[in-house]
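Technical annex B. To support the medicinal chemistry partners, we prepared a structural model of the target in complex with 2-acetamido-2-deoxy-beta-D-glucopyranose, based solely on the information shown next.
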Amino acid sequence: MVDFDVQTFIVFLVFMLSLGICHADRNLYSGLQCSQADNSSESSFGVNLDNLLDLLTQKGPLSKGFLKTTVGRSSGKIYGLMQCRGDVSAENCANCTRESVAVALHDCSKSKKVQVWFTWCFLRYSNEHFFGVWDQSSAAIVNETDFDDASVVSKALTFMSEVAITAPKQPLMFHAALLDAGQFGKRYGMAQCTRDISTTDCSHCLDTQLMTFRTTIGNKRGWEVYGSSCSMWYHDYQFYSNFSITANDGARRLSLQGVATGIIMAVLVFIFVP
Ligand SMILES: *[C@@H]1O[C@H](CO)[C@@H](O)[C@H](O)[C@H]1NC(C)=O
Ligand SMILES: *[C@@H]1O[C@H](CO)[C@@H](O)[C@H](O)[C@H]1NC(C)=O
Ligand SMILES: *[C@@H]1O[C@H](CO)[C@@H](O)[C@H](O)[C@H]1NC(C)=O
Ligand SMILES: *[C@@H]1O[C@H](CO)[C@@H](O)[C@H](O)[C@H]1NC(C)=O
């Protein structure tokens, strides 16, 4: 666990260091950020929080994997948001949201500002209004010794810039694409914004992540940047469900099962940018 000082409160940003083999069809815990424990909470906060988390868990997965809502009034008011990755099925989205809620309540039970990242979903709540506000916080997970070939690296940055340009224009502000790197195989990219922010802020958010991290992650075979308002991933395996393959079935509720196997997600370094 690593402690960061961000803004006025202590933030814990925890990235699981469980290295080794992970599978793309599994929902993995990626990180957590919560404000300092506040023991002075009025009891209404806890009641409101329970109601909020119920709402997010039950309605979010059924509303295209995104919901922002508030519960309570005046000082007891809580703002909550959940969003699943754009390709994740409603069922997996629901599971992921439940898991995020469990983590939040277990690890940050006395915090008023909480963010939880899983591979399939993101949960955030706060006693302060944050809807529609681009938050520049983000963290990168990368195996810092897993360098890619130089010829792929130059293509990769252009490729990810294109992914970043395309994502804001999509209905879910989610875009996945693949890069054919010839003899070096394929690379896969994804960009997504939380759907409370504007498309303009989505573009800025993704651009900023690329600019911020390009020198540290750009020459690696894989990385994941998780932010409060947007996220970008890049890997040498397909980690998302391909909509167009199954579009003929008329089904967008995809399960990630069978997408990719044998993934080594090396979590060695994370870089935090307030
Ligand atoms: C709040 O309570 C917890 C134990 O419940 C304690 O560890 C923590 O130090 C307290 N925080 C403050 C700011 O008093
Ligand atoms: C959701 O979680 C339950 C148990 O927590 C599990 O039995 C079920 O298979 C999960 N569903 C999916 C789609 O992963
Ligand atoms: C990081 O990448 C290097 C080079 O590919 C690899 O040998 C190492 O096993 C990776 N680390 C982890 C923890 O997977
Ligand atoms: C999805 O699959 C189709 C058909 O195999 C392929 O042409 C397309 O590039 C894939 N898209 C992504 C984002 O992987």
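Notes passed to the chemistry partners:
The domain at 138-273 is CATH 3.30.430.20 (Killer Toxin P4; Chain A).
Residues 1-23, 245-274 have pLDDT under 50 and may be disordered.
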